[in-house]
Amino acid sequence: MNVNPPSDARLPLVEFILLMAFLTSLVALSIDAMLPALDIIGSQLNSQSPQETYLIVSIFFTGMAFGQMFFGPFADARGRRLTILVGLILFLIGTLVCYLATNMEVLLVGRLIQAFGVSGPRIASMALVRDLYVGNAMARVMSFTTVFFILVPMIAPLVGQAVIVSFGWRHIFTMFALVALVSAIWFFSRQKETLPRANRVKFSFHQFFRSIWWLLKQPAVMGPSIGMGLIFGAFLAYLSASQTIFQVIYDTGTYFPLLFATLAFAIGAASLFNGLMVVRLGMLTLVNYALTLSVLFGLVLSIVSIWFNGIPPLWLFVSVMFVGFFFLGILFGNLNSLAMVPVGHIAGVGAAFIGSFGSLLAVPIAVFINSFLDGTITPIAIGFLVFGLLTYVVVKLGIKYTPLEKVDI
Hints:
- The protein has 15 helices and no strands.
- The protein is 81% helix and 0% strand.
- The chain is an all-alpha fold.
């Protein structure tokens, strides 16, 4: 028996988008507000190397990968509201561990718990959107949500830096706790459950692994999922090393948050553009253009980097990155939606698998690229080129098997 969500479960569109954005923004906030503090934390907690300090960012995605695999089936079995409640409680526990950490090992454990917990709101939010919307309408809602999700990285480093200067780096975690509490109050006072009991799937390992096996055999799911992991791996390498790039290689000092915000704005602008154009042009058309232009971005950045011996002028580096990040923003806004098209009957497990697979693939790629950092931006540039090309190939193969009638609704 398949029952539609209650008619009163759909909030006004603007409020729904803002609420979903606020919940998912915990992910971006938990990553980007930490960036100005990395060197300070590494110094005070006796980090053994820059690569260990970078783990404060990259290990978060590992925790999210495992968290999504847990919360996906949980969301299908127990509903979206309970998923968000449990996730926020775990996030708050991890935040407390980080606040009290006296060494890097404890801090990284806290970051894993944080990431595991924040996966609950992230997965449940994606499933909520899929419960209420489908096809291009779903892509439109997710794109507008992504606009706010991307706006957070624009201001998060500035906020993080302000907190460090005024209160110390530990109170960045106090800020995380306050945002989580506000999110919980708003969500539970306004959003009703969107998964009726009749539609819930009792968890069983047999059914779980059967669903995973089904997903693995779907080119329409795997193409966009692998592509997202590949290109996000290159982006995560930049993200993890962004403080080193701007404050060490380019010696920009306190201007780092502003430069970071400038590049984040490019992705936000792309998400807004995508939200406005996806219904008119269609998801597949936008993805096809973005794939080609993303490869071109990697090629231009690599040529520029090699031409200037690994350190192009700051204005040129930021200009190329800005244009390239616009193309990446279009990909980020559509690849998850494209992968979700065939999985409406297992939206929770599908969202969990797609998110987890991408993160687990991206983290080792980022660590690999960052291992070549040598005081130049060349490894980052080559990373965008190589993994952009691989993304082009696997997504094109996935699109070949995507049911068009289910995409352009």
